[in-house]
TrEMBL record:
It comes from the Bacteria. Pfam families: HATPase_c_3, HSP90. PROSITE patterns: HSP90. This is Molecular chaperone HtpG. PANTHER family: HEAT SHOCK PROTEIN 90 FAMILY MEMBER. Keywords: ATP-binding, Chaperone, Nucleotide-binding. Belongs to the heat shock protein 90 family. InterPro entries: HATPase_C_sf (IPR036890), Heat_shock_protein_90_CS (IPR019805), HSP90_C (IPR037196), Hsp90_fam (IPR001404), Hsp90_N (IPR020575), Ribosomal_Su5_D2-typ_SF (IPR020568). The keyword Nucleotide-binding applies. It comes from Hymenobacter saemangeumensis. The gene is htpG.
Length: 606
């Protein structure tokens, strides 16, 4: 008996939409058809476990094959199959999902069934028409006494359905590949697609006599059943080009209030603004969906690598793009908490080992503290600060370490730091001579991190060591008197202004210690920090600071012997220029022609 009919859809234009717009990439067709075959196999296994199928399961592989000469691709399974009536119901009525009906029917009998079924929308089968101009289905139900069914459709809304001889249960989907899709007749192309999307499906997938998947990847197992070597081996399976071992990892395994499994690895994070992203792979019931996980994983956690698998993450119809909702937000929050708990545990259990890793994870932790207040609240106890002597402190420890000696006249703690210990060595040394401690904050996010800590830590300010003279960095109650009269100070200012002849250099005379340098060049802390933040990705109002020209404060030490020489000598202007150039040299600002002139002048003054 042969039957002809029309596929039940609401518009004649649905096929072009499916073929051209529903799926973002034509290669998805193979993922969808293999997933359907796995669904059918999983359903049969569930019925066998429930005692509703008493036959022999036998081999349950899904087999994919290609015949280049015949221009066909076949996906064959030995799942529960379909009768002719079921084909009419499930295939001809677009968007009626057999998976949904099956779950509803059996959810009371087997709670695990829902998590074993992949299909949600009933549209996956029609992705076949993106690459095929004719599709056949040969199917036979597992139910006793049923006949085989043969369905054919050429991509229009017309189909034929007839009985056929088929010995074994299950379904064969045969795609007759269209002329514009020759690439999918290449075995290497199909293997690549299967490896990408089906590598961890729970039923064996065979292609060219080789099983291409692991049916039980380690994220589906209990952590107690795995060794460190298992985790490391899996990491290199995911990222075969990575030469580094992961620093550590988190095994996610939760079934309430949402279902989530997976493994997140902490890689070595390089101090770069272009941070590696799209390294976390999202799966739904072991089917690869995407590596775009920005809605599921917080921004700062996208530095991690690994796998997340959840049937509770809502996808759109094409299963290609995420749909943010309350469940996604809960998963996002949960992952953040698990990461914070893991870092806290590592810090408490073995601080020495944690400190050894700090160079690799510090940027990641700071990024998280900047991005998420809840993460900051947890991380403040295991975030570390490193001083120029390479000693590490928690935020609380460091505050206690410096507050006795580094409180200013307003009883605020002043934290001194350098972003380039070598270039700012003279300033660091001057601070250390006063007994001050200096932090090393030279990572790309540190300009932003400094601002965050000033907001969070009470009565605490941060100053870069070259932001002022050492005596001005931490202002005390005591004052130093100038040995120069007011007239001499004005004369000295004029001599230096004329010698420097640069409006970006703002000259002032101040009574510093005779042991301090004769001239000190500094940059306003606020302006310099804003420019640093703008250069490292600060947005909004900070963009304006990047357009401002650099300006510097030139402090002439009224109490240094050089000041007297400049005032009293016939070549005071020359001495002033020399003292200024020395200060520039200390800042690494003396270059090119000015450096050549300085060397020549130094020789003349000897």
């Amino acid at each position: 008996m042969q039957e002809t009919g029309s596929i039940s859809i609401h518009t004649e234009n649905i096929f072009p939409i499916i073929k051209k717009f529903l799926y973002s990439d034509h290669e998805i067709f193979l993922r969808e058809l293999v997933s359907n075959a796995v669904d059918a196999t999983q359903k049969l296994k569930s019925l066998a476990q429930l005692g509703e199928f008493k036959g022999e399961l036998g081999e349950l592989k899904v087999k994919v094959s290609v015949d280049k000469e015949a221009r066909t691709i076949t996906i064959a399974d030995r799942g529960l199959g379909m009768t002719a009536e079921e084909i009419k119901k499930y295939i001809n009525q677009i968007a009626f999902s057999g998976a949904t009906e099956f779950v509803e029917q059996y959810k009371e009998k087997d709670a695990a069934t829902k998590d074993q079924i992949i299909g949600q929308f009933g549209l996956g089968f029609y992705s076949a028409f993106m690459v095929a101009d004719n599709v056949e289905i040969f199917s036979k139900s597992y139910k006793e006494g049923t006949e085989g069914a043969h369905w054919v459709c050429d991509g229009s809304t017309e189909f034929t359905l007839e009985t056929t001889e088929k010995e074994d249960r299950g379904t064969n989907v045969v795609l007759h590949v269209a002329a514009d899709s020759d690439e999918f007749l290449e075995a290497s192309r199909l293997r690549g697609i299967l490896t990408k999307y089906c590598k961890f499906l729970p039923i064996e997938i065979e292609f060219e006599d080789t099983v291409i998947n692991q049916t039980a990847p380690i994220w589906t197992k209990q952590p107690s059943d795995l060794t460190d070597e298992d985790y490391k081996k899996f990491y290199h399976e995911l990222y075969p080009l990575s030469l580094d071992e992961p620093l550590f990892w988190i095994h996610l395994n939760v079934d309430y209030p949402f279902n989530l499994t997976g493994i997140l690895y902490f890689p070595k994070v390089k101090d770069e603004l272009q941070l590696q992203r799209n390294k976390i792979q999202l799966y739904s019931r072991q089917v690869f969906i995407t590596d775009e996980v920005k809605d599921v994983v917080p921004e700062f956690l996208m530095l991690l690598h690994g796998v997340i698998d959840s049937p509770d993450i809502p996808l759109n119809v094409s299963r290609s793009f995420l749909q943010a909702d309350a469940a996604v937000r809960k998963i996002n929050t949960y992952i953040t908490k698990k990461v914070a708990d893991k870092l806290s545990s590592l810090f408490k259990q073995d601080r020495a080992a944690y400190e050894e890793k700090w160079g690799d994870i510090g940027l990641f932790v700071k990024y998280g503290m900047l991005s998420d207040d809840k993460f900051y609240d947890k991380a403040k106890d295991f975030a570390l600060l490193k001083n120029v002597d390479d000693k590490l402190f928690t935020l609380t420890e460091y505050t206690e370490h410096v507050q006795a000696n580094q409180k200013d006249k307003n009883d605020s703690t002043v934290v001194l730091y350098t972003n380039d210990a070598e270039a700012q060595h003279a300033y660091v040394a001057a601070a250390q001579e006063r007994g001050y401690d200096v932090l090393n904050l030279d990572q790309v996010l540190d300009p932003h991190f400094v601002g965050l800590l000033e907001q969070k830590l009470e009565k605490t300010s941060f100053k870069r060591v070259d932001a002022a003279t050492v005596g001005q960095l931490i202002e005390k109650e005591e004052t130093t008197e100038s040995v120069l009269s007011e007239d001499d100070q004005n004369k000295l200012t004029t001599l230096f202004v004329d010698a420097i002849a640069n409006p970006a250099m703002h000259v002032k005379v101040a009574p510093l210690s005779p042991q301090d340098a004769p001239v000190v060049i500094t940059q306003n802390e606020f302006m310099r920090r804003m420019k640093d933040m703008q250069r490292t990705g600060g947005g909004g109002g900070m963009q304006m600071f990047g357009a401002f020209p650099d300006s510097f404060d030139v402090t002439v030490n009224a109490n240094h012997p050089v000041a007297q020489k400049v005032l009293s000598g016939d070549d005071g202007g020359k001495l002033a220029k020399q003292a200024f150039d020395l200060a520039l040299l200390a800042q690494g600002l003396l270059k090119g022609e000015a450096l050549t002139a300085f060397v020549k002048r130094s020789t003349e003054l000897l």
